[in-house]
Design a protein that fits this description.
A hairpin with a 5-residue loop joins strand 5 and strand 6. This protein starts with a helix and ends in a 5-residue tail after the last helix. Helix 8 (231-246) crosses helix 12 (291-302). Helix content is 49%, strand content 11%. It has helices at 4-18, 24-39, 62-66, 88-95, 118-123, 163-200, 206-226, 231-246, 257-260, 268-274, 277-283, 291-302, 344-359, 370-379, 387-395, 397-406, and strands at 41-50, 53-61, 80-82, 99-101, 130-136, 142-152, 158-159. It is an alpha+beta fold. The radius of gyration is 24 Å and the shape is elongated. The protein has two domains: 4-183, GAF domain (Beta-Lactamase, 2-Layer Sandwich), CATH 3.30.450.40; 201-406, Orthogonal Bundle (Hypothetical protein af1432), CATH 1.10.3210. The mean pLDDT is 92. Strands 1, 2, 3, 4, 5, 6 and 7 form a seven-stranded antiparallel sheet that branches.
Length: 411
């Protein structure tokens, strides 16, 4: 529980800290965690505005999390609410004003909004005190809603949020909204780049890359825990990886439509050209200026390498596409990287990308059944995929399924 002095100090540095996080999903996690700490709250959620609706985007709940086995994640469904006065979040989005309720089960019947009890009934959780704050842009537009649930005293007893909490959350929300707006712009730029690729290659959809990004983060988090990465290295790498994973196939924009959109099997020469998307994508990030540039370069270049060394493009000069001297095969081609020669980000995205490709329907194929997908991944352990990552993958299937559910392809 933060002291008043610690809260003021935290607010002073909050803008700088939040602006260091570039990925939207990871930023929402950070914003919600910090907001809850400021007012010692048990749970909370973030809704992001999508036209005239609010998308329930992210949630945290210490009580429900505590009921799960160690390292298990709280899995939740996403949903939308209309922006009107009938729900608490909708009311705050409509009016643009903070709402502080000591007990949502005692809302006056004359109030325009009511509390939806469905979540409590299904989860066995009891929501009481709720403070709901609008997230506004600098122009005053509603970006989303921050909802903080069940303030607690020093003993863990649920109490009402105070007027001081209201002022604190309004200040917090104004700072968080700036960071969230910037992260949304970054995500929008990434998705525009991906839509450019989608015009060339229909496999590169926004849903696909969001799933690959989500799977990659889940694999990395568990890998990082096993390898005891420092918190600083963990936070920095996670932020860069999600965005880099989304851009894994950006190099396809440089491949000819005659090859990229060919409905039949590639010839040997066509396949060799197709392989070039790895280093062509990596070239976009040669002028390294940040951790993200390094991660994006690494992922684009190595996500088709194989654990057994039979992948591509292998040891090449990214600027020229030519094999590096001393790392060639008898036929003069570049030797593939193998095992831990492949950077961990490349190994992670390789597994995430294949899992999604096999699991998803495309214009040229139906989605494979889950049993066939899992069987194939199991068979490729130690051949195509890092055995350690496959072990992590199978231990996190529930989370992978929830990510699939969250980012569905448009019909």
């Amino acid at each position: 529980m933060l002291t008043e002095e610690e809260k003021l100090d935290k607010l002073t540095h909050l803008g700088i800290e939040l602006n260091q996080v570039r990925d939207l999903d990871i930023l929402m996690e950070r914003v919600l965690k910090d907001a809850r700490r400021f007012v010692n709250a048990d749970a909370g959620s973030i809704y992001i505005r999508d036209d005239e609706s609010l998308l329930f985007t992210y949630t945290q709940n210490d009580t429900l999390q505590g009921r799960l086995p160690e390292n298990e994640k709280l899995i939740y469904a996403t949903f939308t609410l209309p922006i009107n006065t009938e729900s608490i979040a909708g009311y705050v989005a409509t009016t643009g004003s903070l709402l502080n309720m000591p007990d949502v089960y005692r809302i006056e019947s004359t109030a325009p909004y009511q509390f939806g009890k469905k979540f409590d009934a299904e989860s066995g959780y009891t929501t009481r005190s709720v403070i709901t704050v609008p997230l506004k842009t600098a122009r005053g537009d509603i970006l989303g809603i921050l909802q903080i649930i069940n303030a607690q005293d020093e003993t863990g007893r649920v109490i009402a949020f105070t007027e001081k909490d209201e002022k604190l959350m309004l200040h917090f929300a104004s700072i968080a909204a700036v960071a969230l707006e910037r992260a949304q712009m970054t995500r929008s730029i990434l998705l525009r780049m991906i839509r450019m690729s989608e015009m060339r290659d229909p496999k590169e959809t926004g849903a696909h890359v969001n799933r690959v990004g989500g799977y990659s983060i889940e694999l990395f988090e568990q890998w990082a825990r096993k390898h005891q990465l420092s918190q600083k290295a963990f936070d920095s790498a996670r932020d860069s990886l999600r965005m880099a994973a989304m851009l894994h196939d950006v190099g396809k924009i440089a491949i000819s439509d005659m090859i990229l959109k060919k409905p039949s099997r590639f010839s040997e020469d066509e396949y060799e050209i197709m392989k070039q998307h790895t280093f062509l994508g990596a070239r976009l990030f040669l002028d390294t200026q940040s951790d993200f540039d390094e991660a994006a370069h690494e992922v684009a270049l190595t996500h088709h390498e194989r654990w057994d060394g039979n992948g591509y493009p292998g040891y090449i000069d990214v600027a020229t596409g030519n094999p590096i001297k001393g790392f060639t095969l008898p036929d003069g081609k570049a030797r593939g990287k193998k095992g831990e020669e492949i950077p961990v980000f490349g190994r992670i995205v390789a597994l995430a990308d294949v899992y999604d490709a096999l699991s998803s329907a495309r214009v040229y194929k139906k989605a494979w059944s889950e049993s066939d997908v899992l069987s194939t991944i199991e068979k490729e352990t130690g051949a195509q995929f890092d055995p350690e990552l496959v072990e992590i993958f199978f231990s996190r299937l529930k989370v992978f399924r929830s990510i699939q559910e969250r980012y569905q392809d448009e019909p």
